[in-house]
Design goal:
20% of the residues are buried. Strands 8-9-10-14-13-11-12 form a seven-stranded antiparallel beta sheet, with helices on one face. The chain starts with a helix and ends with a strand. β5 and β6 form a beta hairpin. The protein has four domains: 60 residues, lambda repressor-like DNA-binding domains (434 Repressor (Amino-terminal Domain)); 150 residues, no CATH class; 89 residues; 135 residues, no CATH class. It has 473 residues and is of the alpha+beta class. The longest helix is centred in the first third of the chain and has 38 residues.
Length: 473
């Protein structure tokens, strides 16, 4: 018997086609055909691979000894599974949890971004982009969930109509799929072709070329070959069990890395309480970067030593990214705020009033982006803060100064800025820049630019608002 005839005999004994043998050999079907027709001989590497596939020696393939009569190999394990709706529902319920976790993490991340952006009076365009990402994410998750539900429905329909029988041999197993007692598909799968195994309660899921095969673990014998497929990572000698010190450091870095975002927010809040400049204080987030970076470095160092510290690397990268994003707000929005005395000097000149010596002033340019205020168009706002001693004489004169109103008449509410609604104060001035009038309604309908001054006695703060109003008489 020739070499080609032997290859053909061994191939047929294993139930393989020329194409299937070629796929296992990483050669074409034509190459296998040429071997079997004795037109070419396998290379040394191919002979070694043929030996492994056929479980014979190279001498058996090349030698003059005739192959012995085919011996039908008996399976070492045999299982037959008929699935019910409860089996499919349990499996999909467990895998659905991963989709829910991803959706919750995404929602929390968007919520944090929106909260920080809103608290910092971020540009409306940025807030709109965050909302846009959130809406797109929601749509994506809904679409993914619907696809998942359809896959569950299709998989359940196929599984419930079929019976799956598994025969385990040395190094491989066969799957026979039958419907109504008739075999519709037979697969021969080598154990090294199993791409992934996943244990879900009393079920073992085998992933093979994009298909999932469900094994009921309760039906398996104690030392089943299927059970060994689920233990490759646990049996790797390179993975070590971390000592108490390594485990403690890993847990602390993991917790501290997650806590950095809250610690940074607390630091920003404390600093903002003193200077009232939240957005400009966002650089504080950079101060907490060493913690997640330390978690990343620790994770990689321990990984090289054979320890499992993947969670430190993952959380380190996530938290470092958040800290960099939030910290960069200070520089991204640096041109939105200013601390010049120009608004104070301008107001004193136009209104002929004396504003006390201030401790700090924060001016925001509202013209950078869209606005959604109830009335008017805001040009700028200036928040001025005073020390108690600086405003003693100023506050004594307020009640006797006719330019300051202790409350706004109803007929003048329409020409005030909306800050009068959201920030009640003790004294007000409404100055019309176009008519050079104080606390008076325009005599004609039209568009007017106003300066609204609000002063609060308890907090020793003054707000200057420059805005435009469409007035109808």
């Amino acid at each position: 018997m020739t070499v080609g005839e032997k290859i053909q005999l061994y191939r047929k004994n294993m139930g393989l086609s020329q194409e299937e043998l070629g796929q296992k050999m990483l050669v074409s079907r034509q190459t296998v055909s040429l071997w079997e027709m004795d037109k070419t001989l396998p290379t040394v590497d191919n002979l070694v691979r043929l030996k492994e596939i056929f479980s014979v020696s190279i001498d058996d393939i090349l030698g003059s000894t005739e192959p012995t009569e085919k011996i039908v190999e008996q399976p070492k394990e045999t299982y037959v599974f008929k699935y019910e709706s409860a089996d499919i529902n349990i499996i999909f319920k467990k895998t659905r949890f991963q989709l829910i976790i991803r959706a919750v993490v995404f929602a929390i991340a968007c919520g944090i971004l929106l909260a920080v952006a809103s608290a910092a009076n971020t540009n409306d365009i940025i807030i709109g982009l965050i909302w846009g990402c959130f809406i797109l994410g929601v749509i994506s998750h809904i679409k993914g969930f619907l696809i998942y539900k359809q896959a569950q429905k299709d998989s359940a329909a196929r599984a419930l109509e079929s019976t799956y029988s598994y025969e385990i041999f040395e190094g491989y197993f066969k799957v026979n799929i039958s419907r109504n007692g008739e075999i519709t598909k037979t697969l021969k799968i080598y154990f090294n072709e199993v791409e992934r195994t996943q244990s879900l309660g009393s079920y073992l899921i085998l992933q093979i070329t994009g298909q999932s095969y469900i094994i009921k673990k309760d039906a398996l014998i104690a030392n089943s070959a299927f059970l060994t497929l689920n233990k490759p990572e646990q049996e790797k000698p390179a993975v070590k069990k971390p000592g108490k010190l390594v485990k403690t450091v890993s847990i602390l870095l993991f917790i501290f890395s997650i806590a950095t975002i809250w610690g940074a927010l607390l630091g920003v809040a404390i600093l903002t309480a003193t200077n009232q400049m939240m957005t400009e204080n966002m650089w504080v987030f950079f101060l907490f970067l060493p913690i997640p970076i330390a978690s990343i470095v620790f994770g990689f160092c321990m990984k090289k030593k054979g320890y499992r510290c993947k969670k430190n690397i993952i959380v380190g990268f996530i938290m470092a990214a958040f800290l960099c994003i939030y910290g960069s707000f200070t520089f991204i929005f640096s041109n939105v705020y200013s601390h010049s005395e120009e608004p104070i000097l301008k107001t004193e000149s136009l209104l002929n009033i004396d504003i006390p010596t201030h401790s700090r002033i924060n001016t925001q340019d509202w013209t950078r982006g869209t606005q959604s205020v109830p009335r008017g168009y805001i040009y700028s706002t200036s928040d001025i803060y005073f020390e108690d001693a600086a405003v003693e004489d100023f506050e004594k004169k307020l009640s006797g100064d006719s330019r300051w109103m202790s409350e706004i008449p109803n007929d003048m509410i329409g020409i005030t800025s909306y800050f009068c609604d959201i920030q009640p104060s003790d004294y007000y001035i409404i100055y019309n820049k176009d008519t050079n009038e104080i606390n008076k309604l325009p005599s004609d309908s039209g568009t007017y630019v106003f300066i609204n001054v609000l002063y609060d006695v308890d907090s020793n703060t003054m707000k200057l608002v420059e805005y435009r109003i469409e007035y109808t008489k």
